[in-house]
Amino acid sequence: MTANAPNIDWYDYSFSELTTEMLYSILRLRQEVFIIEQNCNYLDADGVDLTAFHLMGLINNEPAMYTRYFIAKDNPQHGIIGRVIVHSKFRGLGLGLLLMEHTERCFKQRHNLNKITLGAQAHLKSFYEQLGYRVYGAPYDEDNIPHLPMRKNIPFNE
């Protein structure tokens, strides 16, 4: 944890393990950041949540960060991370790096993977590169936001 980072309570659940209060907190955080803050109208309830795992970090009982992660339908050795969020009031503390590292650890505990991919907003390319992710395809537009396909090969069989 970085020197300025507050104490984080982590919760890692499948969809069926989420309480209604947790689900509400997750959906609210995703809407605050992706729909309101980024001024992007899109269907957040895309059906993926039902088979994904949901990792949320709380600071002082307040949702501060979140990711969802799941196995690719076409390859059980291939993981996908999405909906990566740090609430605006908690940014600048290095929590995004902690969130991604924790998400990878949760993946490792649940699955034996050799690759993780994500669709990164293009302006966050260097953030993900710090964690070892590399661009592997052409840029694309998702909901009027430039994105890059990125992946990281994971030595999960150590």
Short description:
It contains three helices and eight strands, in the order E-H-E-E-E-H-E-H-E-E-E. With 158 residues, it is of the alpha+beta class.
Overall mean confidence score, pLDDT: 91
Helix content: 25-40%
- Distance between the ends: 24 Å
Low-pLDDT runs: none
Number of helices: 3
CATH architecture: 3-Layer(aba) Sandwich
- Count of beta strands: 8
In CATH terms, the superfamily is Gcn5-related N-acetyltransferase (GNAT)
Q: Beta fraction of the residues?
A: 35-45%
Compressed to H and E, one letter per element, the order equals: EHEEEHEHEEE
Task: Please give the CATH class.
Answer: Alpha Beta
What is the count of structural domains? 1
Keywords:
158 residues; alpha+beta; Aminopeptidase; 25% helix
